[in-house]
Amino acid sequence: MKLTAKIKLLPTPEQAQNLIDTLSRANQACNALSEIAWENKQFKQFGLHKLAYYPIKEQFGLSAQMIVRGIAKVVDAYKLDKKTKREFRPTGAIAYDSRIISYKPPRKTVSIWTIQGRQSIRYAGGEHNEALLKFQQGESDLLCRKGKWFLLATCDVPDEQTSEINSILGVDLGIVDLATDSDGQRFTGSEIRKYRKKRASIRASVQAKKNAKASKSTIKNTRRLLKRISKKEQTTSTIINHTISKRLVKKAQSSVRGIALENLKGIRDRTVPRLRKKQRNEHSSWPFSQLRQFIAYKAQLAGVRLVIVPPAYTSKTCHECHHLGHRSGKSFTCTNCGNCSDADHNGAQNIAAVGASVTWPENSTLYCALHRC
């Protein structure tokens, strides 16, 4: 599995200046390459390399491999469409490969090519990223964010062999509770709900100032503030999604179970129109697809079997008698057997049952137990 390790570089002031100069020179070369590609209508890597390699090398004084990576960057930029000439920012990210960068984990340094020659730069990485670096393979993107330097290293991590499982843990993703499993455990709380409401209120307040009659400087400041708020929300939601997915996978792994998730493609289009206006911002601000992706890749790394099931009627079917019932918010009531339970818990149990039927044949013991054969 391909994963990305985020490594924070700790350059000295002189090294930081070398990195800035290198990024600037490399992106200048990319702009020149883009000009050649645009004028000659040559958007293939081999053709552009043959056409521009030696002129660019002579003009910008970059290493051979840096020019090759620049050609690849320009070609990738034109893959979307060839209707507009591409231009690159002076501090845009540049890809490095194993010929111009190497990691030294024991010393926590990285040897990286710059226009001033090779530089040995210290880096800081958490336990997770340090573990990933053992499998570093392929390219690493050098980028600068607000004066801080990072390397995004591609790591080819081997998957754990999927082990035999005894049952399925169903997981229902929702609005009020971000995740509820078939054991009845909820992976969210009132604090998260308050946070989401507060952030929606702040965004609305700032946007109101932006839309009002204001000076250009005020509008510019509100745009910056909205961008900063958005970044903070993304960081918070990513941390929470990582925590939830890690706990779910660990729970399934320790109890020798697989995980069943719904195929929620298009859930936002189906759900948002039915919500009140106040609920829409709260719902739309949460990255549900990210949570599902985190669960999927963590399960694959841990060797936990993952099953994707169709979402039809999982929230409206009674897990006791399998008849259609009535759901109102967080409450589910079965009109056939009288079962009253938490709607998300009921849905998670149905997801677990459907996941079991997908995983095992109909004559298996587990399938019969879950479906009361």
Chain-wise SSE layout:
Layout: E1 2-10, H1 13-40, H2 45-60, H3 64-77, E2 94-96, E3 101-104, E4 109-114, E5 117-124, H4 127-133, E6 136-145, E7 148-156, E8 167-173, E9 179-181, H5 190-211, H6 216-254, E10 257-262, H7 267-271, H8 277-284, H9 288-302, E11 306-309, E12 326-328, E13 331-333, E14 340-342, H10 343-359, H11 365-371
Parallel strand pairs: 8-10, 10-11
Antiparallel strand pairs: 1-5, 1-7, 2-6, 3-4, 4-5, 6-7, 8-9, 12-13, 13-14
Helix pairs in contact: 1-2, 1-3, 2-3, 5-6, 6-9
Domain Probable transposase IS891/IS1136/IS1341: 157-256
Keywords: DNA recombination, DNA-binding, Transposition
GO molecular function: DNA binding
Q: Which labels suit this protein?
A:
373 residues, alpha+beta, 2 domains, seven-stranded antiparallel sheet, 14 strands, globular, disordered C terminus, DNA recombination, DNA-binding, transposition, Transposase, RNA-guided_DNA_endo/Transpos
Written account of the structure:
- This protein is α+β, with helices and mostly antiparallel strands and 373 residues long.
- It folds into two domains: 2-156, no CATH class; 167-187 and 241-371, no CATH class.
- Helices cover 48% and strands 21% of the residues.
- It has eleven helices and 14 strands.
- The strands form three sheets. Strands 2-6-7-1-5-4-3 form a seven-stranded antiparallel sheet, with helices on both faces.
- A hairpin with a 6-residue loop joins strand 13 and strand 14 (340-342).
- The longest helix is centred in the middle third of the chain and has 39 residues, at 216-254.
- It starts with a strand and ends with a helix.
- Mean pLDDT is 84; it is low at 360-373.
